């Protein structure tokens, strides 16, 4: 059974009996309660005191604008995919792959666990306002076990608990309304509607602060929009519920914050607002209701985070991003991710023992913002790829994700530049680990579309260039064959010729019904190339003539961007096939494609891979660079590739028929080495014809010999392996290689 099928079974059979939630309970309620958190009760007054009502309104608008743009981007992408469990992790994974999704999901999971602990500490501080004699640690433990018990029992119980908490927060807001009705707003509107003086806080003895510092204090209040999306795997219709519930929660919470800022600006003086964090509680009609709101806000935020983080861990387990993935992906009969809950509980309780999270608290906000940035990046990519599959029901203008992305990044560096860099570095570190894990993605993503778009762009830009790209040359080898075994023999050589930037295309030529079998066998060899770091593909041409099959394929590919530039012809093929090599070589010259004729030595094979001989033979009277390097560029380039991958040495050997040309040949070799920047120290000049020189020349593990214009008959070269005692490559340039480039 394939892993794809296995994932589907885990996502269906085990979810029988799972309670599914609608927009109000599954998205709107947890999102709203997370946004209306402790900052609203204990820091909004300080924000208004420093920034003034106008400055506070600007801070709220900017913060919610970043949040709104991200929510719109998230709404767009969730209406285009079948989102599974994990919220933002699922969205990013399905778009950019498991490696990117996991690089965000793992730190995000840990940061949400830390967020639960901070919410517990916040609840404790509110509790100690009422009962100062109680033990802080005992209060933390009791709150943790209450939270964990509710979340472990079921998400349904958690949602019902949040309904109760929403009632408490509504009661606290009613206490504000009654306070305003009964005359709390004593400060005139013209005085309240001012720009702040930014005098600072009790912690810095009111030595002043800045607008962006105040913004950084408030902004975490606007980072709760993922609470509903984290429930994506347990929603009846996430495609509708996530956009609708999230946007309504943002709209309602924005109005509440704007109205509360106006109320507190008219209900207390600047001095009271900046010095007393409890000013909203004291100015309310019934302070106990506000204290209950603080407790409810922290409890609900912790509850939403513990449920959301366990769902992220569960989703990563489903996709085997983490070790013990199958165990983490376990669900009970009602669909609750019990094992993920156990791990999450251990994480939260462990962080509780640290007792002080102030040093790493900004990291929590940073990973929210990194998530926002990545969601916007996903939409930007999808919008610009122009893929037919991007058909979101909820469409947004192109500027929206850009505003969300830029706003998120700016907010990160405003809040804490150092922690911002640390969070991005941590995400890239996790990505590098996951990228080496060779994760098997159980769904399609847009990475192929991204790469294809880059390729199309590159092809268009290259087509505009007037010069051939000799400096960017790399071997793209076409290997035609009638028998897969003839590819297995030179497989190591082909791999070393192409690695690491080249490619190998295996073309099966068949005139019988065995073509399918040949193609399947070549596909296995192609997979071996890919696993070895060489891009490879396969094709099958059904034709009665080997030469026609190869030539027609090359003619068809002549206008392609990624076309083969080397034809690799193996003399291991049957004699009938080898007889058709000459028309292929002739056509390759017309099409300006290089040719490599593989002549294996039956015993020596590739030897020890330590020495490569490259033979130079000039039929002209002058050995000069001005005449051109001749038909040696491809031979030397192949030798250089083998030198790199074998860690071998290259020996350049010149063959001269006239002894008077010895000095010219030596100078010619020196110029080639110098201008081509080749790490070659071993050179030799031999007198005589090529055949006697090959038989008398120094030993090498492979001999590379340029094809000679006066010897086009392939039978002439068949004896070369016996003359040298090694495997030989007979090479003919395409005209587009240039060793001097």
- Compute the gyration radius: what is it? 36 Å
Q: What share of residues is helical?
A: 55-70%
CATH class of the largest domain: Mainly Alpha
Kindly report how far apart the N and C termini lie.
52 Å
Q: In words, what does this structure look like?
A:
The chain is an alpha/beta fold and 741 residues long. The chain has 3 domains: 3-435, Amino acid/polyamine transporter I, CATH 1.20.1740; 468-596, Rossmann fold; 600-741, Rossmann fold (3-Layer(aba) Sandwich). Helix content is 58%, strand content 9%. The chain contains 31 helices and 10 strands. Strands 3-2-1-4-5-10-9-6-7-8 form a 10-stranded mixed beta sheet, with helices on both faces. Strand 9 (702-706), helix 31 and strand 10 (727-732) form a beta-alpha-beta unit. The longest helix has 35 residues, at 44-78. It is elongated and about 115 Å long. The two termini are 52 Å apart.
What are the SSEs and their pairings?
Blueprint: H1 3-12, H2 23-35, H3 38-42, H4 44-78, H5 88-96, H6 98-130, H7 136-153, H8 155-181, H9 189-192, H10 211-218, H11 226-229, H12 238-267, H13 270-275, H14 279-283, H15 287-318, H16 325-328, H17 338-352, H18 361-385, H19 399-415, H20 417-435, H21 447-463, E1 476-481, H22 485-488, H23 491-498, E2 503-510, H24 515-531, E3 535-542, H25 546-556, E4 566-570, H26 575-578, H27 581-591, E5 594-599, E6 611-617, H28 633-646, E7 649-656, H29 662-676, E8 682-687, H30 690-696, E9 702-706, H31 720-724, E10 727-732
Parallel strand pairs: 1-2, 1-4, 2-3, 4-5, 6-7, 6-9, 7-8, 9-10
Antiparallel strand pairs: 5-10
């Amino acid at each position: 059974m394939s892993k794809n099928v296995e994932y589907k079974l885990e996502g269906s059979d085990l979810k029988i009996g799972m309670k599914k939630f609608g927009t109000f309970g599954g998205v709107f309620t947890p999102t709203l309660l997370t946004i209306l958190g402790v900052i609203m009760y204990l820091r909004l007054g300080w924000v208004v005191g420093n920034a003034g009502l106008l400055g506070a309104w600007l801070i709220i608008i900017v913060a919610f604008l970043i949040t709104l743009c991200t929510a719109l981007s998230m709404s767009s992408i969730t209406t285009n995919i079948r989102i599974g469990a994990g919220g933002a992790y699922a969205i990013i994974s399905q778009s950019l792959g498991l490696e990117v999704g996991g690089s965000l999901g793992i730190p995000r999971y840990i940061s949400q666990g830390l967020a639960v602990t901070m919410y517990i500490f916040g609840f404790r501080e509110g509790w100690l306002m009422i009962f100062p004699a109680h033990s802080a640690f005992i209060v933390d433990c009791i709150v943790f076990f209450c939270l964990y018990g509710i979340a472990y029992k079921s998400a349904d119980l958690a949602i019902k608990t949040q309904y109760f908490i929403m009632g408490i927060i509504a009661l606290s807001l009613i206490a504000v309304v009654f306070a305003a009705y009964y005359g709390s707003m004593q400060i005139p509107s013209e005085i309240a509607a001012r720009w702040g003086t930014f005098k600072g806080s009790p912690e810095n003895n009111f030595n002043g602060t800045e607008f962006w510092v105040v913004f950084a204090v408030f902004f975490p209040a606007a980072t709760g929009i993922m609470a509903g999306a984290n429930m994506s795997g347990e929603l009846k219709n996430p495609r509708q519920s996530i956009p609708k519930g999230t946007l309504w929660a943002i709209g309602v919470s924005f109005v509440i914050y704007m109205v509360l800022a106006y109320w507190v600006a008219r209900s207390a003086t600047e001095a009271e607002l900046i010095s007393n964090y409890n000013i909203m509680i004291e100015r309310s009609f019934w302070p106990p209701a506000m204290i209950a709101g603080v407790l409810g806000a922290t409890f609900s935020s912790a509850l939403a985070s513990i449920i959301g983080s366990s769902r992220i861990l569960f989703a990563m387990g489903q996709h085997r991003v983490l070790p013990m993935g199958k165990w983490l992906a376990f669900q009970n009969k009602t669909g609750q991710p019990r094992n993920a809950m156990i791990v999450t509980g251990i994480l939260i309780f462990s962080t509780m023992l640290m007792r002080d999270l102030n040093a790493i608290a900004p990291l929590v906000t940073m990973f929210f913002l990194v998530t926002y940035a990545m969601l916007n990046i996903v939409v930007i990519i999808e919008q610009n790829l122009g893929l037919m599959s991007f058909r979101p029901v909820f469409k947004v203008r192109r500027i929206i994700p850009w505003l969300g992305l830029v706003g998120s990044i700016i907010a990160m560096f405003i809040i804490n530049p150092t922690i911002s860099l640390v969070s991005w570095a941590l995400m890239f570190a996790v990505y590098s680990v996951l990228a080496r894990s060779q994760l098997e993605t159980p769904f399609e993503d847009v990475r192929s579309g991204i790469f294809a778009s880059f390729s199309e762009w590159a092809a268009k830009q290259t087509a505009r260039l007037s010069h051939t790209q000799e400096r960017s040359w790399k071997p793209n080898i076409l290997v035609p064959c009638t028998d897969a075994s003839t590819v297995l023999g030179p497989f190591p050589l082909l791999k070393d010729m192409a690695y690491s930037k080249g490619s190998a295309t295996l073309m099966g030529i068949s005139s019988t019904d065995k073509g399918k079998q040949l193609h399947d066998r070549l596909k296995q060899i192609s997979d071996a190339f890919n696993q070895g770091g060489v891009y490879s593909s396969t094709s099958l041409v059904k034709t009665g003539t080997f030469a026609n099959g190869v030539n027609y394929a090359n003619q068809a590919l002549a206008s392609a961007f990624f076309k083969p530039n080397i034809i690799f012809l193996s003399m291991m093929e049957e004699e009938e096939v080898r007889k058709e090599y000459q028309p292929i070589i002739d056509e390759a010259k017309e099409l300006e494609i290089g040719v490599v004729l593989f002549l294996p030595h039956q015993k020596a094979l590739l030897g020890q891979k330590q020495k490569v001989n490259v033979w130079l033979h000039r039929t002209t009277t002058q050995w000069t660079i001005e005449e051109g390097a001749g038909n040696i560029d491809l031979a030397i380039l192949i030798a250089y590739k083998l030198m790199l991958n074998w860690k071998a040495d290259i020996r350049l050997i010149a063959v001269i028929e006239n002894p008077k040309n010895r000095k010219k040949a030596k100078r010619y070799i020196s110029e080639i080495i110098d201008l081509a920047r080749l790490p070659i120290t071993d050179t030799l000049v031999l007198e005589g014809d090529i055949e006697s020189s090959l038989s008398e020349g120094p030993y090498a593990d492979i001999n590379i010999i340029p094809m000679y214009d006066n010897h086009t008959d392939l039978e002439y070269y068949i004896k070369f392996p016996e003359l040298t005692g090694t495997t030989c490559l007979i090479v003919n340039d395409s005209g587009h290689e240039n060793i001097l480039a």
